């Protein structure tokens, strides 16, 4: 299961990077929880779509995903933690940053869905 969860997490980032909303919706459990330096948000499907649309001006590229750790809690629930490095561009400014992330994945109706994702920016 570890390899599958790591692969799903990478797919999620790739779909974010490519602005593939439909693909993200397929991989997301609703309602979901997202937490970051901007706060905590519980999102139903529509508020997730709204959040996605608001972030369209931010362009980013995943430079690396590393240090992945997965724990299988049950045969239908797993958690993953890892480090991600990205390059972001917003309103003509480009910068790189790194975060540690964790996600909770649940098996629902035969498909894995991300129910919670959290990001903590690392100090530079």
UniProtKB/TrEMBL annotation:
Signal peptide: none annotated. Gene3D superfamilies: 3.10.450.50. Residues 5-114 form the DUF4440 domain. It comes from the Bacteria. SUPFAM superfamilies: NTF2-like (SSF54427). Pfam families: DUF4440. This is DUF4440 domain-containing protein.
């Amino acid at each position: 299961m570890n390899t599958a969860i790591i692969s799903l997490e990478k797919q999620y980032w790739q779909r974010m990077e490519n602005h593939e909303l439909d693909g993200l919706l397929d991989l997301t459990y609703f309602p979901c929880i997202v937490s970051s330096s901007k706060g905590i948000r519980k999102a139903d499907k529509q508020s997730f779509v709204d959040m996605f649309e608001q972030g369209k001006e931010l362009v980013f590229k995943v430079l690396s995903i590393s240090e992945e750790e997965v724990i299988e809690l049950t045969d239908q629930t797993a958690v993953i933690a890892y480090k991600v490095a990205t390059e972001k561009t917003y309103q003509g400014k480009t910068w790189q940053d790194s975060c540690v992330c964790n996600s909770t994945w649940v098996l629902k109706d035969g498909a894995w869905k991300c129910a919670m994702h959290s990001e903590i920016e690392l100090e530079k």
